[in-house]
Amino acid sequence: MMTKQSSNTTVLLKKLAVIPLLTGFIFLLAERVEAQETIEIEEIVEVLKNSLDDYKIENKYYEADRIKKPHFIKSSKERQEQLIKSLSSLRLVYANLSIEDKKKAKKPIHPHNPYVKLNKNNKVFFKLRSALTEEDKLLIPPPPAGPNASKERILDSVRAYKD
Q1: How many CA atoms lie within 13 A of 89 on its CB side?
Q2: Per-residue pLDDT tens for 118-156?
Q3: What total number of domains does the chain contain?
Q4: Rounded to two decimals, what is the model's pTM?
């Protein structure tokens, strides 16, 4: 078979058969890509300018709602959930502020403030900082190790947190 001569017409037909196959594969495997819209830099700057004012207004409403009676720990579950949602959205807006704007705005306060949340025997309870006993102070976990802490300090804080 290797020494047998192929006719020119069969060679030409084989070459012509490849063309429809290639075009079929191109159309079959082609994926349409559309350009994404770009946001103008001026629009981003305008949003950032307004974000500090928006944060201050939202924080003002949150604080007014937070200090209403009864206190967070004595209020209904619905009110507690609503305050926690407000705090979450406020923290998100605060996190997106620039460093200069963060210096101008105050951080959002957790609704259970001035109470401390304590866990003992898988039971959660709240106490005022001024009413904490020495036993209660042991229930407060230590602060986490800093970013430049030694490995020994990190292990100590992990052990203390687990205890």
Answers
A1: 14
A2: 888 888 888 888 888 888 888 887 777 778 888 888 888
A3: 1
A4: 0.56
Q: Which domain holds residue 48?
A: 44-113
Which pair of tokens denotes residue 121? 């025997």
Q: What is the pLDDT of residues 55-101, one digit of tens each?
A: 898 899 999 999 988 888 888 999 999 999 999 888 888 888 888 88
- 96 in a structural domain: yes
Please write down the HEC assignment for all residues of the chain: CCCCCCCHHHHHHHHHHHHHHHHHHHHHHCCCCCCCCCCCHHHHHHHHHHHHHHHHHHHHHHHHHHCCCCCHHHCCHHHHHHHHHHHHHHHHHHHCCCHHHHHHCCCCCCCCCCEEEEEECCEEEEEEHHHCCHHHHHHCCCCCCCCCCCHHHHHHHHHHHHC
What residues have CB less than 8 Å from 128, skipping those under 6 apart? 114, 115, 116
| Within-domain flag for 52 | yes
Residue 102 located in a structural domain: yes
Q: What is the residue type of 118?
A: L
Instruction: Let me know if residue 127 belongs to a domain.
Output: no
